[in-house]
Amino acid sequence: MSTQNTSGMAYWKANVRLITISLVIWAVCSYGFGIILRPLLAGIKIGGTDLGFWFAQQGSMIVFLVLIFFYAYKMNQLDRQFDVHED
Amino acid sequence: MELQTLTYIVVGLTFALYIGIAVWARASTTGEFYAAGRGVHPVANGMATAADWMSAASFISMAGIIAFQGYDASLFLMGWTGGYVLLAMLLAPYLRKFGKFTVPEFIGDRFYSKTARIVAVICLIVASLTYVIGQMKGIGVAFGRFLEVDYDTGLYTGMAIVFFYAVLGGMKGITYTQIAQYCVLIMAYTIPAIFISLQLTGNPIPQLGLFSNTVADGTPLLAKLDQTIVDLGFAQYTAQKTNTLNLVLYTFSLMIGTAGLPHVIIRFFTVPKVKDARSSAGWALVFISILYTTAPAVGAMAMLNLANTVQPGPVAAADGALEYEARPQWFKNWETTGLLTFEDKNGNGRVEYRKGDSNELKVDRDIMVLANPEIAK
What are the residue boundaries of the Sodium symporter small subunit domain, all occurrences included (chain A) (predicted)? Predict the structure, then answer.
């Protein structure tokens, strides 16, 4: 196997790892805290309701935003590290 | 000046602006026509994507649905925004990296198959046509109303204008008209929300106002809303009313759907680099979230104001409900549209808004956003 290929595979592996971590957080904050785990969070009160309601109507969107920018930042780092960046 | 003249001037100026942008940004090459010469800044592209993607459903209907369904309507908020995470990580950068203009081109080349490409084209046309039918209905209604002509004439006028600037300006022209649209749309949505939030909670930021205490008696807004509508016989605003599996699947389908929209995907072809495609999805979500985090506040506050207007006194008291003869002007205005109806079932001349058969007031969900500022007065 050539160095080119090994490096390509390592890049892809790092890429998939980053996507997996991000999508786990994505699912836990929306489907988890916002819907399925909401009863577990019912004890944590926030502004007249519970934390699950906040996640469902506001928190999940904030998490999505942070996730996309975090992913973009990390991917740019990976692009440089593996020398596949465009600039 | 008469209102009609004013409407003509405002609508005329908007058209002039759009056509002006189309002429200024007119496309001369294929790359310019399909992908705006791949020169759109990721922030500008994000704003254009946001305006392109948010239609009447987001702008008019969503807060109304939230107002009447409370927590359950969260599935629209999470579903329609969560798709952007999938788009940013699984689709946009790869499609941009491929460097072609359309998704069928990508599929045809990736699978070395003309058949696959034709299947993709058919899927795209079916999805786009379905989408365009809904939007064209909106154009017909809006133009018919503004120009005071019948629905068909309104539709053809609107189509001619859209056709003119899209063909002339291509993707670049569309990008800049959409940026202009976003600015108008977001101001029209947030300014009333800011004032209503200020009035109810003293907090000028609706997103914070939703979780603040009310000015009236210091109780949290959502707790007060829960109590108010429970008194009328409805379930708690913040409670879950449909089953969990339904909520999860519905949210999931909306996320997948958002990630697959052809007119959103093509926007990621317009940015200069793969790097920009990634951040562009983030910027799109920034601009979408400004509206999407305001919507739950608009919904909750509209519901609280509506309930307090029609039920100013205690539910148990005979004179607790609003007297029909003393109904406010907005009530009368919406009655003429037929979207708000009152039927005095028990003949006491009072508007009794209740859960179940004894309810005397029917409110169309879609009027909530438009009527909200008037209800708050």
Answer: 10-85
